[in-house]
Amino acid sequence: MGHNHETIVKWVARAMPDDEVLYDLAELFRVFGDTTRMRILYALSEKELCVCAIAELLHMQQSAISHQLRILKQAKLVASRREGKTIFYRLADDHVRIIIDQGMEHVEE
User: 90 in the Ramachandran plot: left (φ > 0), alpha (ψ -120 to 50) or beta?
Assistant: First the structure.
């Protein structure tokens, strides 16, 4: 039992990512851990939108939406493109969609 326990612990210890990587992962999930940001991500999973459209959709001030979009962009969860004076936001990549979909499956179980 003792030796087997030691072997298992060593094996798992080798498989564990560095603390720095786990910190980044925890930070990523912290960004997801906000209802407003989840609502924005959900809206963007449907369609590329400008700040004014998101604000209208969520019944919120544009300044509040912009603030949350900055956080989402910093976390590389959303990307943007400019068209004239308007900036359009979208999910950064399929990973974001997969994380949301997996989370939804989990809560709907």
Answer: beta
